[in-house]
Design goal:
globular; 4-stranded mixed sheet; 234 residues; 5-stranded antiparallel sheet
């Protein structure tokens, strides 16, 4: 009697296990088909602004080369939406502000301090510092600004912040060629859907802990899979 009961229990368990396995396979197959359908219709979904959940978000690469266009999700994530793309066209290295053609009065307030970042008397940068200037091209396909969603009194719908994109290794940004173009921030710029703009951003890079050839541009989301760009500096 015990043997019969045990065999019956084992048979029931196997049936339940098979049912769960079959259920998992069916769900997985359905999900793949749904993803394929969403991929086919992604362009239409993005254009229509549908909130149905079928919109396919562009993938940001883990690594982008100098001159390569990539999806800049950091400029729209959280409360923004749509597609905006960035290309770092080229990178330059300078030893002084004068060599870089940057006037101190044009830098972001309090970002460059005598005795901390440079020596005013000699004009030399401290901490084995150099200036790395990156030349950007930004294309707004249909993106809206997260800054506008947070602070509409300061930012318009298509105002974005270049400092939200990222920075160089060992180097905070201190100069933006289109500074003060928007009231919200020194680093804000306005870019309507369908438009493209170009500008320069400069970074104070300390070479105390990293050699110049190892300096890369890291997006603000690098740790979570966002792209980094090898600048090929020498």
């Amino acid at each position: 009697m015990k043997r019969t009961f045990f065999c019956g229990t084992l048979a029931c368990a196997l049936l339940l296990l098979n049912a769960c396995t079959l259920g998992d396979i069916q769900i997985e197959t359905w999900s793949e088909a749904q993803r394929d359908s969403a991929a086919v219709n992604s362009a239409d979904s993005i254009d229509s602004g549908s909130d149905s959940g079928s919109t396919k978000t562009p993938e940001a690469p883990r690594h982008a080369a100098l001159g390569e266009r990539f999806y800049a999700k950091n400029l729209v994530q959280s409360h923004g939406s749509g597609e905006i793309y960035v290309t770092i066209d080229r990178a330059e290295v300078f030893a002084t502000f004068a060599e870089a053609g940057i006037a101190l009065e044009d830098t972001c307030p309090y970002s460059v301090v005598d005795g901390m970042h440079y020596d005013q008397a000699s004009g030399k940068l401290l901490h084995d510092g150099v200036i790395v200037t990156l030349h950007f091209t930004v294309e707004n396909v249909n993106a809206t600004s997260p800054e506008h969603a947070w602070e509409p009194e300061f930012y318009e719908e298509y105002d974005f912040r270049v400092d939200a994109l990222g920075a160089c290794t060992e180097g905070p940004n201190f100069y933006f060629s289109k500074h003060d173009a928007c009231s919200g921030s020194y680093y804000a710029f306005h870019l309507e859907p369908g438009e493209t703009t170009e500008f320069e951003v400069s970074y104070l890079v300390r070479l105390e802990n990293v050699p110049l050839e190892s300096v890369v541009f890291q997006t603000a989301d690098t740790k979570n899979g966002g792209p980094w760009v090898d600048l090929n500096l020498k």
